[in-house]
Amino acid sequence: MKFPEVSLVVDHFDEPELDFRYDQRSHHPKDGLFLYGPYDAPRKVQEVRIGVIGTKEGISHFRSWSDRLLSGIAVPPPSPTEKKDRLHLADFAGLEETFGITFDPQRCRALTVEFDAIERATRMENMHEAVDAVARIYTDRMDKFRRNEEGAIDVWIFVVPEIVYERCRPESRRTGLTLVRGKAPKRQRTRSFQGSLLLDDSFDPNIENVFDDIPDFRRHIKARLLSIAPSQILRESTLEPTAFLNSAGYPKRTTQDAATVAWNLATGLYYKTQERPPWRLSNVRDGVCYIGMVYKNLPNNRDNHVCCAAQMFLTEGDGVVFRGANGPWKTGDYEYHLSAAAAEELLGTVIEAYRDMHSEPPKELFIHGQASFNDEEWQAFCRAAPKGTNVVGVRIKSTGGDAKLFRAGDYPVIRGTALQLNDSNAYLWTSGYVPQLDTYIGPETPNPLMVTILRSKNRCPRMQTVLADIMGLTKINYNSCNFNDGLPVTVRFARMVGDILVMGSAREGGPQPFKYYI
């Protein structure tokens, strides 16, 4: 018996190039930065103003690490099981030599907090209250400095001991700790519906503000600083892994090699303190912008409303975050849809911001997300866009093994391979073997992204155009200095942005640069 066969289109997309200084290009951020320097870097070495908050030990670790960051860090020699040529690793030449910025570790604003106070706060019975108390130890110290001292800070760095990471996240269990009573009942997780009538007379109603936030130290800090400055949170063990050893004399944590850590943190430091990102995409199409949309449940909300957030990324690579209206947008277990008014207002705000930057609306506006669009909200998106702006809805989802592609040889499918199912659906392997690095960085056979063109206001773009754009957007994660990510930036950071926007302390204010959220 002869079975019918369907001929599927298999394509490959070349690795996107990046722009660096002196109009030079490279596929790899590390190569471009080392050889040419950041795109649009200042002509003279620029000193950045850093404020660092931590325990006495944490600040000492930060200064020691900063000295190495400024002087350069070599990649450690390969282990017996590693290849001799590890092209995905690179020595870090030094902050000034690589990025053209510098700072004095001894002169940066160093604010000390007490470890004992942090340790006591982490033991409060109520998790929300404990995390809020720890975050306030850091932010109150920062606020005191800002009230009493002159001089702006470009970026605030929070150096935290391991107990903050272990005890101040939503998944923290705090088993084996002797907990102490705070102002809120141990098991309270939301505001008390009956007010303070049933609570102790000494209970402060303002303490219930902590239930407007997720008990997560990182989200507290990011939300609190949205109107102040970009921030970076570092664990002490990231800076000095050899200072935290187990009983066998090995580091308690397995961290990346020191040179890779330096590359990643230096890239974030440059991005958060300079006007332009350290690199940008080459060969971009003029007048195109991309929006990543995400929906997040609001904590402590009796009506089960959700927050809609939109991240706009420009062809230059930088982004702006917008908050949409909160409302009953959840229409099913995995379905979210805006009302017509909310959809029109959100997209109108995005287009207005784009017009302010470029003096004209975008020619093409791609909406990336993991939800579909119903007729009501899509028609509202189209009304919000000017006549000459084509709006395109694209769904991008990770897959869990429903599609695999194999090739002969020791390495898996090459990054950039695509399997086009039809004009609207395709699998795209954004992870895989990279010939330039002669390796595949991953634990198992890579899974593709499922890309679907859902709707288009005007002419539907070619699938090859959509896939090429997604490949480019996997290379502008300025929170690290990797060759690429597995997800485009529009999708990769969507959950992180949403997690911060739903915090009670982040509900005020307009659009903010993306650098404040990462």
Name its key features.
Nucleotidyltransferase, domain 5, Piwi domain-containing protein, 14 helices, 18% strand, 19 strands, Rossmann fold, four-stranded parallel β-sheet, 518 residues, single chain
CATH superfamily of the largest domain: Ribonuclease H-like superfamily/Ribonuclease H
Strand order of the biggest β-sheet: 1-16-17-18-15-14-11-12-13-19
Q: Please provide the count of β strands.
A: 19
Distance between the termini: 57 Å
- How much of the residues is beta strand, in percent? 15-25%
Q: What would you call the structural class?
A: alpha/beta
- CATH class term of the largest domain: Alpha Beta
Number of spatially distinct domains? 2
Total helical elements: 14
**CATH architecture annotation name of the largest domain:** 2-Layer Sandwich
> Would you tell me the overall average pLDDT?
90
List unreliable stretches of 5+ residues. 194-199
Structure write-up:
This is Piwi domain-containing protein. GO terms for molecular function: nucleic acid binding. The protein has 518 residues and is α/β, with parallel strands linked by helices. Helix content is 28%, strand content 18%. The strands form four sheets. A ten-stranded mixed sheet has the order 1-16-17-18-15-14-11-12-13-19, with helices on both faces. It has a four-stranded parallel sheet with strand order 7-5-8-9, sandwiched between helices. The protein has a three-stranded antiparallel sheet with strand order 3-2-10, with helices on one face. A hairpin with a 4-residue loop joins strand 12 and strand 13 (319-323). Helix 5 runs parallel beside helix 7 and helix 10 (340-358) packs parallel to helix 11 (375-384). It is globular.
